[in-house]
Amino acid sequence: MLAKRIIPCLDVDNGRVKKGVNFVNLVDVGSPVEIAREYEAQGADELVFLDITATNEKRKTLVDVVEAVSKEVFMPLTVGGGISSLEDMEALLQAGADKISLNSAAVAHPILIKEGAEKFGSQCIVVAIDAKYQADTGIYKVYTHGGKVATDYELVAWAKKVVSLGAGELLVTIMDADGTKNGFAIPAYQALGQAVQVPMIASGGAGNIQDFVDVFKETSVTGALAASVFHFGQLTVDDVKEALAAEGIAVRRI
Amino acid sequence: MLAIVDYGAGNVFNVQKAFHKLGVATQVTDREETILAADGLVIPGVGAFKPAMEILESKGLVSTIQKAVAAGKPLLGICLGMQLLFTSSTEYGLTKGLDLIPGQVVELPRSVLAAKGLLVPQMGWNQNRLHKTDSMYSFVDNQYTYFVHSYYAQCDETYIVSTVDYGVDVPAIVQKGAVYGMQFHPEKSGKVGLDLLKAFVNSL
User: Which residue in B114, B126, B194 is closest to A3 by CB distance?
Assistant: First the structure.
């Protein structure tokens, strides 16, 4: 049976791994290769590298990071953050990335999803969606630029659109929950699971083992992503998998 | 030296990096003399069957690969490269393959899978069940390997080394003589994947 995937996320700033809460207060947590190796040893199923480097000049360091990690760590690597052209995608895929994650650029130029899927295959194109719950309207609204810019899109409508354009996977972060360790936003993933037929990774809010159990038991997501609980050593990937296995959820353990 | 057949079907470098990690010399090539001089061949590949066969044909590589196999050189096909080993595929119309292993490549049965809550493509780690206990890959039994695919091979049990359960039994490793195929990506399957590649190299 296909295993549910546990995916640590590494925020990369100018070649180093950083972690913050709600995308601010960044703390240096180490070198990408060392951290990737550590997660491989813990049984991570996949790694996501998100480039949060502020300036364009320093952004090419991401290609070097991918190149270095892919020589040492043999698992699927997804790379995102500031990718806005087919050339960017090609450089990262050539460097060893398996999947490209598009976020703000997909909102600005949805055609990029289609062009990327046509050139590299849908399996290469992940669309990362950041959304926040709007208490007044009761909908999840899509945001870009690390949560700073609101769009006109509602979460499920945007998800359907990106899948129709060729996105092969969705990485959905509910930002109210991100870094807060209050649990994954279950209702959002349930709604998405009804609406689209592509693999989906839940992101944002994992604070304890039960949060992972809940998201897999109550939604159809095929992977769960987390950063802080893993980076600061609160949980290992295998701690999470041990608990999932005990609940009868298929996981790969090493 | 291992020849990694280059036909523009993406991500040959990750396969090369995995062999490099194992200390195995490789050359990414589309030249017949290099391929025929190699100790073994690897056909990687991501993408669709029909365009891949068209490129192999246009580069004259179909006959080169068949010649190498006829000369007894071990061959490993990975993912799309595994599917190309079969007689034909129905992806974008019936297309003839390299015909090194009898069988047909067809789409995962979407309705059967949907009824079980499974998506197409299969993307992720799935657990191998060993069929051939005398295989050099017998250690793959119960191990998880990483898959990304929408089509799968249908072939005689004789050629099946291992399968995974994805709504249907999906051949994961196939073999006929010194021709091997892996539907998953060993270069993305952690230690088990590297061990599988090493076993192939040790057979050269």
Answer: B126
* Stretch 110-149 of chain A: residues touching chain B, C-beta under 8 Å: 120-121, 123-124
Rounded Cα distance between B45 and A75, Å, is: 17
- For chain B, the domains span 2-95+103-202
Q: Out of B144, B148, B190, whose CB is closest to A3?
A: B144
Residue B126 forms contact with A (CB below 8 Å): yes
Is domain A5-246 given the CATH code 3.20.20.70 in the classification?
Answer: yes
Q: How does pLDDT run across B175-194, given as a tens digit for each residue?
A: 999 999 999 999 999 999 99
Cα(A82)–Cα(A60) distance, integer angstroms: 11
ipTM of the complex: 0.92
* CB-based contact, A193 to chain B, within 8 Å: no
What is the tens place of the pLDDT at every residue in B120-171? 999 999 999 999 999 999 999 999 999 999 999 999 999 999 999 999 999 9
Which residue, A45, A114, A95, A41, is CA-closest to B123?
A45
d(CA B157, CA B152): 14
Residue B143 Cα, gap to closest chain A Cα (Å): 8
The CATH homologous superfamily to which domain B2-95+103-202 belongs is: Class I glutamine amidotransferase (GATase) domain (3.40.50.880)
On whether any CB of chain A is under 8 Å from the CB of B194, the answer is yes
With beta carbons less than 8 A apart as the criterion, state whether A140 and A159 touch: no
Which residues are within 8 A (CB) of B149 and not within 5 positions of it... i.e. 6 or more apart? B79, B108, B121, B122, B183
Query: B119 vs A1: CB contact, 8 Å cut-off?
Result: no
Q: Show me where the domains of chain A are located.
A: 5-246
Q: How far is B123 from chain A (nearest CA, A)?
A: 8
